């Protein structure tokens, strides 16, 4: 079925995108330390969530695409288990990000980028929304 392969391709692309996002976070963390001397380390990077979860999403999507090519009762049950684990890992990622937002908002009185004023951000957001 083409729609199943399409959705699993989205899962594979999500895994690749999450891996790239993790690399971007690592780059931003190191440049922040070098440029500002800041030592704030995100929880997602401490747990390496973007890296191990991305490989699980890629594996889960690829395994389900393989299931579409070759059907067997073992592959069906295995694909179901891998997709359930993948969904649970997604929930863990949402919880990590929620904890990150709460932790940062409670611990920080100063903005992360003090050279960007809130007024500029609000005006930029209004300009984007007006399109």
SSE order and pairing:
Layout: H1 2-36, H2 43-46, H3 49-69, H4 73-107, H5 118-129
Helix pairs in contact: 1-3, 3-4
Helix content: over 70%
Number of domains: 1
Mean pLDDT: 77
Low-confidence stretches: none
Distance between the first and last residues' Cα: 38 Å
The quaternary organization reads as single chain
Structural class: mainly alpha
Sheet with the most strands, sense and barrel status: none
Treating each run of at least 4 consecutive H or I residues as one helix, how many helices? 5
Strand percentage: under 5%
Total strands: the figure is 0
Shape summary: elongated
Strand and helix order? HHHHH
Nearest-angstrom radius of gyration?
Answer: 19 Å
Structure overview:
By secondary structure, the chain is an all-alpha fold. The protein has one domain (1-129). The protein contains 5 helices and no strands. The chain is elongated and about 55 Å long.
């Amino acid at each position: 079925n083409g729609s199943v392969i399409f959705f699993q391709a989205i899962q594979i692309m999500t895994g690749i995108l999450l891996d790239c996002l993790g690399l971007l976070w690592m780059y931003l963390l190191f440049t922040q330390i070098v440029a500002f001397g800041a030592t704030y380390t995100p929880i997602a990077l401490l747990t390496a969530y973007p890296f191990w979860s991305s490989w699980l999403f890629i594996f889960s999507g690829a395994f389900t695409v393989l299931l579409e090519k070759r059907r067997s009762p073992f592959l069906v049950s295995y694909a179901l288990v891998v997709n359930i684990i993948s969904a649970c890992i997604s929930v863990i990622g949402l919880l990590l990000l929620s904890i990150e937002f709460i932790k940062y908002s409670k611990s920080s009185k100063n903005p992360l980028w003090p050279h960007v004023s809130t007024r500029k951000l609000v005006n930029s957001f209004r300009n984007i929304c007006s399109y």
